[in-house]
Amino acid sequence: MDTKRLDNILKKMTEVVEKSQEEILLISEQAEKEYAALEEELVQTKLLVNQYIAKSNELEKKVRASRRQLSEVSKRFDIHSEETIRRVYEKTHQLQTEYAVVQREEKALRQKRDDLERRLIQLSKTIERANNLGRKVSIISSFLQDDFHEVNELVKSAQEKQQIGLKIIEAQEKERKRISREIHDGPAQSLANILIRSEIVDLAFRDGDTEQALTEMKSIRESIRQALREVRRIIYDLRPMALDDLGLFPTIKKHISSISEYNNIDIDLALHGDERRLDPHYEVAVFRIIQEGLQNAIKHAKASRIIVRLEIRDNLIALNIEDDGIGFDPENINKKDSYGLIGMKERVDLLDGELTIKSEPNRGTKIVVKLPYKIPVESERNV
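The chain above was modelled as a monomer; its predicted structure follows.
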């Protein structure tokens, strides 16, 4: 592939990723702001509904008592004057009118509350779709960052290396921006929401509404848990330091243990061969393939059990990832929904390996990867 053609491809990829990220971030920001405002308005509306219910119940009691009094004085014209009957009648009429007004206002508030809840559900779905799309775009950005250095080794001329180096720097900056935005739109927004909800709790306690305050406290605890889950997810998406410090086998063990515990799913891991350090390119590639395979099995295949087998031989790296999920038809897979599989194939192709995907609907999926690998002579002496 000539320099001009490669530059055009990289430029188009970068432009598409940048534009997609900006549009997704804009949608997510607007939806999050509207969601927070509606959520606060819903809390206030619920408080008003409770107040009107209490007021309506009190007026209902007064109306009943006034009706009984009117009935009694109306039956005893002989001992009650016309003026007395008139005052009781006017009082009853006034209470009935006030009761009808309160009922209408209560009904309007209930309708407003229900409408707010429906709008929040719709916004929540919009935010979820935006986040899912954002993660897909992030995968592309991650591929650009992780694989540019591999492309760089294929480019021989100084001019090509310079251009690829600039792309790597740009991809790194975009990745930092993505992580910053994820923290802003995830944990930071949750913490801001928690602050608002805590003020609502304080207001409820001041009004003596203990039940409402306890309900909000439960909601705050769930928001805190969600923020913690988001922080952990962001950390897990980053490259583990253990991969550089300890090597492939220990990192895989730790990652699978964390994923299994976090998602409450059974993952059977078998590692064969000497736990020697491999070339960094191979360690990164194998780890990313396993990471993506597990993510697909858990999030898309909805698997309840996953089997991972990795064997390091003298001239071959063999990897199998098998799950009992819903499966799919590899021939009819939608490319726009298969960035993970595409990324795995690209990594395997760059290392002159072979990727085989075996799957059928409702019969699980099996991914088989074979990478030719020759252990360096120096590593053989150190084993």
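The first strand starts at residue 266 and ends at 272.
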